[in-house]
Amino acid sequence: MMPSVLVNSLTSLLNVKPNAIVHSAMPRTVKGLPLPSMKTELLQRITIEPGQCGGRPCIRGMRIRVQDILDMLAAGTSEEEILHDYPYLERDDIRAAMTYAAAYLNHTIVPAQTR
């Protein structure tokens, strides 16, 4: 799904204005089961603003994307190194990025069959 399509889907689903910051972009449930409160609190750190970073999920309205944090972790950068290099980030921001990715990937998508 293209980022703008995702943002449009989220904004219409959450019934917010297109230029609004969307806190807690992920639903409070995954597959009908409520997320534990700690996950919900972490997900509130994730914001999506159409005019910022191409509408991609960011950390607390800053211009650091969830993807940036995930890329650094995947490359073997430790949490301590990330926090040192980005002093405005908090440890829970890193956990929020991982929680967002896990919740996003847990969403079942069934592709339509084409003929």
Protein architecture, described:
Helix 3 crosses helix 5 (91-105). 43% of the residues lie in helices and 10% in strands. With 115 residues, the chain is mainly α. The strands form two sheets. Strands 1-4-5 form a three-stranded antiparallel beta sheet. Strands 2-3 form a two-stranded antiparallel sheet. Strand 2 (29-30) and strand 3 (33-34) form a beta hairpin. The protein is built from five helices and five strands, in the order αβββαββααα. It has helices at 3-14, 37-43, 66-74, 79-85, 91-105; strands at residues 22-23, 29-30, 33-34, 46-48, 58-59. The longest helix is centred in the last third of the chain and has 15 residues, at 91-105.
Query: What structural class do you assign from the helix and strand content?
Result: mainly alpha
Helix content: 40-55%
Write down the Rg. Answer: 15 Å
Number of strands: 5
In the sheet with the most strands, the strands line up as 1-4-5
Order of helices and strands: HEEEHEEHHH
Mean pLDDT across all residues, rounded?
Answer: 74
Please summarize the sheet with the most strands: 3 strands, antiparallel
Q: Provide the β-strand percentage band.
A: 5-15%
**Annotation field: number of helices:** 5
Keywords:
globular; 115 residues; disordered N terminus; mainly alpha; two-stranded antiparallel sheet
Topology, element by element:
Layout: H1 3-14, E1 22-23, E2 29-30, E3 33-34, H2 37-43, E4 46-48, E5 58-59, H3 66-74, H4 79-85, H5 91-105
Antiparallel strand pairs: 1-4, 2-3, 4-5
Helix pairs in contact: 3-5
